[in-house]
Every structure is written in structure tokens, then in C-alpha cells.
Design a protein that fits this description.
There is one protein chain. This protein has 176 residues and is of the alpha/beta class. It has one domain: Rossmann fold (3-Layer(aba) Sandwich). 21% of the residues lie in helices and 32% in strands. The strands form 2 sheets. A 6-stranded mixed β-sheet has the order 4-3-2-5-6-7, with helices on both faces. Strands 1-9-8 form a 3-stranded antiparallel β-sheet, with helices on one face. Strand 2, helix 2 and strand 3 form a beta-alpha-beta unit. The N and C termini lie close together (9 Å). The structure holds guanosine-5'-monophosphate (5GP).
């Protein structure tokens, strides 16, 4: 599994610069307000932890576990909740942090689930978006990088559970 050929795609430096930029934009948007930052597990954990360290507001952390790929490279379209938020977010400014928007089905599911809990506001942030892969309309407030419709790993994103610990994002060249 760990002997696949990886082609570097987004460098550590590019990721860190983007995280700073997004953190500054969110700090400005919510100046003086408290934020509940929701990490979508597992893929966004690394982006999330870098992002919240670049937000200057008072932040509380919540975790939302969902699974849609089930270890493969194409979305099943079916969203399975593996961990729900631990606290209510009613009347809170919620910032939803996702790793990648592919078909848009997972993000739409998450948005609807959070909106049903009546937050004061909901802001969506995705590190990556594949505009050509969208199957449903999915509006995002902040996007780090728009990428081609290709499978990527690293910086939290996996292939069959591996590669999440890479400091950069790569394309996998030789799927088995
Ligand atoms: P969607 O519901 O938008 O099709 O898929 C969203 C989820 O699929 C993401 O949260 C992520 O877990 C997974 N995903 C989509 N594209 C990729 C990709 O290129 N690489 C990896 N590792 N996961 C992806």
C-alpha cells in the first residue's frame, strides 16, 4: 500500500500560506465573536488543526465523523455518520471545515444537518474543491484550492487509510 507512486501536487508551503490566508479571512469576518469550529473527520483533521491555530477569535472545537468513500476512490453517494457533534450549536456561529468537496453530496448533507440545529450562522470552508466532479449544487463560502477531477492524498486525505500523514498533497499515479 505504501509503495504507490506519488506525484507532489500542492506543497507544504502552499498549504501553510493558504491556511494563514483563510485563518485571517475568518478572523476578520467574525471579529469579536465566538466561533464553533466543526472538524469533519477523518480527512480534515490536519487542515482543521492548522486552520484553527490561525484564527484569532475564541474558538471551541467540535468533531463530526462521516464516511462516504468506504476506503475506495469513488464516492458511494451514501453518507454514514460515524460520530455526531458532542454539543448543541443552536445560536452559535458555526464554521464547518471539510477537506475536499467532490460530488458535493457530503457537504450538502453536513450543511443540512447543522442548519437543522439552528445555528446563528453557518460558514463553510473546504481546503479543496473539484468543480468538474460536482453532482449537486454546493455553494461554499471559502475554498483553498480548486483542483482537477483527480484522486489526491496527503495532509489528512487517505487512500485505503494510508497517506494521511503526508505534509503535502499528492496524486497517486499507480492504483492497483
Ligand atoms: P463528496 O461527497 O463530495 O463526493 O465526497 C466528499 C468526501 O469524499 C471527502 O470528504 C473525502 O473524504 C472524499 N474524497 C473526495 N475526493 C477525494 C480525493 O481526491 N481523495 C481522497 N483521499 N478523498 C476524497
Amino acid at each position: 500500500m505504501t509503495n504507490l507512486t506519488l506525484k507532489p501536487y500542492i506543497t507544504e508551503e502552499q498549504l501553510q500560506a493558504k491556511v494563514k490566508e483563510l485563518g485571517a479571512a475568518l478572523s476578520k469576518k467574525f471579529k469579536g465573536e465566538k466561533i464553533v469550529a466543526v472538524c469533519v473527520l477523518k480527512g480534515s483533521f490536519m487542515f482543521y488543526s492548522d486552520l484553527i491555530r490561525n484564527i484569532e477569535n475564541d474558538v471551541t472545537c467540535e468533531f463530526f465523523g462521516v464516511s462516504s468513500y468506504h476506503g475506495g476512490t469513488t464516492s458511494s453517494g451514501e453518507v454514514k455518520v460515524t460520530l455526531d457533534l458532542a454539543s448543541p450549536v443552536e445560536n452559535c456561529h458555526v464554521v464547518l471545515v471539510e477537506d475536499i468537496v467532490d460530488t458535493g453530496l457530503t457537504m450538502n448533507y453536513l450543511k443540512n444537518s447543522i442548519l437543522s440545529r439552528k445555528p446563528k450562522s453557518l460558514t463553510t470552508v473546504a481546503l479543496l474543491e473539484k468543480p468538474e466532479a460536482l453532482k449537486v449544487k454546493c455553494e461554499l463560502d471559502y475554498v483553498g484550492f480548486k483542483i482537477k477531477n483527480e484522486f489526491v492524498v496527503g495532509y489528512g486525505l487517505d487512500y485505503q487509510g494510508y497517506y494521511r500523514n503526508l505534509k503535502y498533497i499528492a496524486q497517486v499515479q499507480n492504483f492497483q
